[in-house]
Each structure stands twice: as structure tokens, then as C-alpha cells.
Amino acid sequence: MFDEIEGLCDKVVSGMQVTTMTAATLAPSQDVAMLTAAAVAVERVRRSADAAQLAILAELARRGFDTGPDGSTLETRAPAGEVAELACDTIALALGCSDHDARTRSRLAVRLGDDLDPLIRPLMDGAVTERTLRLVADETQDASRGAAAAVVAHVLAPMRGTDVPRIEALDRHDLAQACRRVLDRTDPGWRESRAEVNRRERTDVRTYPGPLGTTELVACLPSETAHVLMAGVCEIARERQRQDPDLRVGPARALALADLALRGVEVSTHVTLGLALVRGPSDPGEAEFAGDDKTAGETRTAGETRPAGETRPAGETRTAGGARAVSAAEGRLIDVGATVEPWVGGVEIPRIGWVPGFVVQQVVERLDSRVTRALLDPETGTVLETSTTGYVPPPSVRRLVELRDTRCRMWGCDRPAVACDLDHATVWPGGPTCGANLSALCRHHHRVKHAPAWSYVLHADGSAEWVSPAGTPRLTWPTAYAPAEAPAQAPAEAASHETTGAPDPSTPTQPTTSGAVARHDTVDHGAVATAPPF
Description:
two-stranded antiparallel sheet, three-stranded antiparallel beta sheet, disordered C terminus, alpha+beta
């Protein structure tokens, strides 16, 4: 019987496809009442589908894997009401959702399969949303089984004077209050104990990418602190609006919050830019100095002097006139302080969002900033000294991988690479400590990679392939990918490349604006000649 689920779902999908085409064709000729009735009918199907999926996840979330005494992989099952370790990662890959969504739905599904079991019925009938059930689950999260049962019975009972259950009749605010009133009667003191735990353990400040060029700053604070903070933000925002009547309230509050947070604080920024070191004809303004040997990969301009005895680090670029960076797009040096045009493209920061290039330029020019330039050698595609015979990656290797990956290489994870472990794809010492064998994995997904029944392969082109215990494959690509259109090759030349795997010395390198130099062959940091399939 269970094997018929896929067939039943295929029929439902077919029905929804017909519904979609019918609506697209005939909806313009229908009145509002008919359109509303159709939307309600489709919503009922969607909610019922959510109930079916949660029923499946209630069991799938309890399945885990362990290693047996003989080294074999054994399937395990967590106790009722508990989510198996790493089960959410399997679900996230299978459903193509974020780890947070998978974890949230898995916890709800397990609760619905345990102490909140009666709540599945109104969802299955399409009477309520999954979000409504999650509200009840959140309100009863720390309650005893008896208190949770009392809450379930109360919200499923009809409202006084009606036949409609409270869970359907009440909005989210009133439903939450109804749950809390029951908990007050059945579990006195629950509010104080939960508030104490929340204030101690759940306060936090996080960032998420907002609309392009913005970041959402989300703070969970003690209630009285949040009240005072918001009052201060509103007061400063009103003052800003008095000074600028055209300023809308939203931007005014955002500026006010920044004023409060940075008031009396000295901030020193550190901007790390992955720039391409372009080798080719010297710039007219560039000159060599007699008796002054440049370090490998160093670029300097006329008029620059080096103090006696100074040793320039490999790959450093600077002039006496100020900070300079290599423009991979133009293949020349640009004076940061002299040009009014953006000298670097926008920067995508994990968990923050996209920062326009002119903003980065302003940060470098106006604030007390340090600029780290990681110059990538076009002959190897890497920063110099990007390999070692030891286990621990040297700073140059870590900087390379962080600039290349920018975030955890697990599909859907946005943990910044600077906060991740550097994992050897092929275990050291069997695999070298170099960019081709290293990738950024957050601590959680580092454990997932080594968990039983999981597979992780870092390919030569920089892509990382994950396969979950359920057999779901997912492919991720390094963020600082360096795509370039390869010129047409003669069949014989192409065959030569395929046979030897070695680059053609006559093939020129192509400067790119992506922060790396692309070659027409695979380089040891993962850049390839063709664009990734996305």
C-alpha cells in the first residue's frame, strides 16, 4: 500500500497541472466569488498535502545511521518525540530546502506523531495551516505531556456558542493566548521558568541577506531592553525626519539604529579582496629598479622606493601614493584614492548580502580600513605558497580557500567560510594540504561529511558533490568561480588536452572580474574554463 503513495501524488500533480492551465485560460472571465472559491479549493489541497508530508517526515526524522562493530552501516531509530541526529540534513537535501526549514518541519512532524497527534486532523482536512500547528507546538514546547494534552483538547473544542473549533476560529494572537491560559491553569509558573531560560539562552543578534544591497538585522532581546531600544530609535528617527522631511520613516529608523549602535564606538574595518595578478606587458608607468629584486608576484610603479633591508611579502602590490589594487578587467594598477570610479565589483558576503562596489570603495577611502589583497597567480591559479607537507593549512592556503568558497560548501548552508573548518576531501596524509583538496565546511556539516552513509567528493573543477543516505545528490560550486569562455580549439588540439591533461603553454590567460584568473584548463584551486551550470 505504501508504494502506491507516489502514484497517488502523481495523480494529484496532474490534477493541479490541469487546474493551472484552466485557471490561466479562463480566470479572466470569472467573477471575484468564483475566483475566491477556486483559490480556497486549491489552498485546501495544499494544506492536505502538508499533512501527508508531515506524516511521512514524522518517521523519516527519527531515522539515523550508525557504524556497526564490523564497520557496516546500520539504520537506527530515535525514541518517540525525538529527531535523529543528522536526519534533518538528509531531509533538507531531499526536499531542496534550507537546513533551518528542514529542522523546523521535522520537529513539528515528530511532535504531531507523538503528543500533538490529534492536531493532524484539521490540517489534513484543509481547515488550518501548518503554521497554525507550529504555533501550538511552540507554545507547548517545554510543557509536560499532561499540559500539552490539555492545550490540544482546548484548541480543538468548539468556541462557546459556535460549532467551529478554536484552532480554526481564532487568529494567531488569540490562539496563542488561549494556549497560555490553559498552561497557566495546568502548569503554574511555566511563564517565569520559560522566560528565564529564553532570556539566558535564546537572546541573539543575527544577520540575513535582505533586498539587494541591504541586510536584515534580527535581534532577540530581553523585552524591556527591546522596548527602550525601540523608543530611542523612534526618537532619533523623528529628529532625522525633522531635518530631512523627504526621509521616509523606515530609512529614518534604520539610520537611527546605526547612530545608536555606533555612537561613541571606533570601528576599524578589514576588507579582504581577491584580486587577479595579471601578467603581461608592463604599464607605461611601471619601472624596474636597478639592484632591487622584486619578490615573485610583486608589482610596483615608478616612484616607489623600498626602505633598505625591507622584504616585501610575495604577491604584495603597493605604491608610494597610497593603496593600489590590480584591476583584472583592465590589467593595470588603479590608485584607490585617485579614481572616482568603482575600482572593485560588488561583494557578496554570506549572511549579509550584496555590497555595491562604490560602497566598498567608500569604506576603504573614508574609514580606518585595512585592505588585504590576495593576488592569484595566473600560472597556477593560486596564491603563492598554497601547499604544505603538514596537516594544518598555512595562512595563505586558508586565505585562498576562504576567498574561493566564501561560505560552507554544503548545499543551502550560508555559514561564512571564515567561521568554517578547512576539511581535507581526501584524508591527510593521503591527500595534500592544498587548495585542490581543501574546502570550507562549518562544524556541523564537517560532522555530516564524516557521518555514516554520507558521501562527499571534491572534484578537480572545484565542485563539491554531496550524496545523502537516502541517495539524494546535490552539487555546490565555489563562490569565487572564475568562468571564461574558452576559444574554439582544433579537434587535434582538444584531443591533445584530453589525453595529457596538461595546459597548452601557448594558450593565454584571460583576466576576469570575478576575483581570480581563469585558465583554459583546470587549476589547482578549482577555477575552470567554462561557466558553472547555474
